[in-house]
Amino acid sequence: MSASACALLLVALAARQPLAGLILLSPFLRVKHRLAPAAGLLRFAKKYQSRPVAPELATIYYDRRPLHGVHQLNRLCRQVRRLAGQVTAPALLVNGTGDQTVRIDSSLELFHLLPSRHKVFHLYGPEVGHTLTAADNPRRPELYTLIQQFLRIWAPPQQDSNAPLET
Questions:
Q1: How far apart are CA 116 and CA 36, in angstroms?
Q2: Vertex 72 angle, CA 129 and 33, to 5°
Q3: Considering the chain, what percentage of its residues have pLDDT values greater than 70?
Q4: Alpha-carbon distances of 15 from 28, 56, 58, 116, 164, rounded to whole Å
């Protein structure tokens, strides 16, 4: 499962139980493909959307997408849109304008739906695509620094496992 789909699941989870914080990589509420909204109907006529994928991208992009899976992703997006207003945990949302998979405006929409007082939306330029943690992302070291900074500020302190327990 992609980090972006996991970001949606994390938002849905945070609406149901308190979390210390959220780091959402390439989150979205809509994908870019113009037929994605119709996947619910199209899945009955065609099982897969096939497309050529360059060999160097084969490890991060599918050459065949199951339309039933796209339909389920659309359902999850609708659910997250409804639940986002219940999430108050600190949140870091990160996208790149070079993303050819999701609509960046929908990421910003998700950011605005989150009522957390402590949230950050970070947008990299066109050199950064959908898979933010991929080795070919020229901003990957900056991404990791951004995440570390967020964790330093919002992560609860770790208890030393060797320290004696207070009674």
A1: 30
A2: 40
A3: 74
A4: 16, 38, 34, 12, 34
CATH code for the part of the protein at 3-154: 3.40.50.1820
- Tokens linked to 80: 């997250």
CA pair distance 63, 150, nearest whole angstrom: 35
* Average pLDDT over every residue of 87-104: 92
Q: Return all residues near 33 (Cβ < 8 A) that are at least 6 apart.
A: 49
Note the pTM of the prediction, 2 decimals.
0.80
Residue 85 Cα distances to 34, 115, 137, angstroms: 27, 6, 32
pLDDT top residue among 154 and 88: 88
Domain boundaries of the chain, sorted by first residue:
3-154
Return the number of other C-beta atoms located less than 10 Å from residue 146's C-beta: 17
Q: Alpha helices, DSSP H only, in the chain?
A: 3-16, 39-42, 67-83, 104-113, 140-154
Residue owning tokens 């951004």 = 146
Q: Per-residue pLDDT tens for 25-59?
A: 999 887 866 656 655 655 666 766 667 778 876 67
Residues 6 or more apart whose CB falls under 8 angstroms from that of 132 comprise 3, 25, 26, 94, 95, 96, 124, 140, 143
